[in-house]
């Protein structure tokens, strides 16, 4: 893994692995978790943290398998496993709104891969929200409902989509944290931290002075990408 100067810094003896949008690609997630475990075995660190940046479901064919892997202990070849933080993406937000009976969210979710997600739980979209809730394993539904939307460490802010420029961190809306694109993506000024995000797919990871984008379109034939942050350095692992 090649490392370069990062746009922010982490405290000493800490390393963060920030994983982009998985979108139902369970086998790809298995592979990337294995690559992370190999890196931790080869380069031990006192404090390791894995952050999954949301959009675990939809479009790919094994959303249920992705959630099952995120619920399970992180695979580790030696020593204690890393801590794990799982954030909510806009696709998880759509699912939760849909099963609460929000008809607009339901239609939007089904148009954006929700039917494939339901199939991974063995349920048909025609079964309706009550049937969906009965079919989704309680552990999976509890996992989805417990997801946070933001995590901050050192000079970095981790969210699914981005931040709204000009708004202090504590005043950012949940919807923006999970859904925003513009004016965040084109903004070149300072933000409350360097934002590490997914949500907007690119052919390669994006590194700017104020943001790092790690959605590289795994479900569209691209790589599943993980940014590796340590000290004032950044590198990338992929599967």
Quaternary assembly: single chain
Cα gyration radius (Å): 17 Å
Q: Please name the fourth-level CATH homologous superfamily.
A: Metallo-dependent phosphatases
Helix count, DSSP H or I runs of 4 or more residues: 7
Tell me, what is the CATH class? Alpha Beta
How would you write the strand order of the largest sheet? Answer: 1-11-10-2-3-4
Shape: globular
Sheet having the most strands: 6 strands, mixed
Q: What sequence of helices (H) and strands (E) makes up the elements?
A: EEHEHEHHHHEEHEEEEE
> How far apart, in Å, are the first and last alpha carbons?
13 Å
> Uncertain spans, ≥5 residues at pLDDT below 50?
none
**What helical percentage do the residues reach?**
25-40%
Mean pLDDT: 96
CATH architecture: 4-Layer Sandwich
Tell me the CATH topology.
Answer: Purple Acid Phosphatase, chain A, domain 2
Instruction: Find the structural class using helix and strand composition.
Output: alpha/beta
How much beta, percentage-wise? 15-25%
By DSSP, the count of extended strands is 11
Integer tally of domains: 1
Q: What does this entry look like structurally?
A:
The protein has 239 residues and is α/β, with parallel strands linked by helices. The chain has a single domain (4-86, 148-238), classed as Metallo-dependent phosphatases (Purple Acid Phosphatase, chain A, domain 2, 4-Layer Sandwich). It is 32% helix and 19% strand. It has helices at residues 26-42, 63-71, 90-99, 103-120, 128-135, 138-145, 174-179, and strands at residues 4-5, 14-19, 47-52, 83-86, 151-153, 156-158, 194-197, 206-207, 211-213, 225-230, 233-238. Helix 1 packs parallel to helix 2 (63-71) and helix 3 (90-99) crosses helix 4. The protein is globular and about 50 Å long. 41% of the residues are buried. The model has no long low-confidence stretch (mean pLDDT 96).
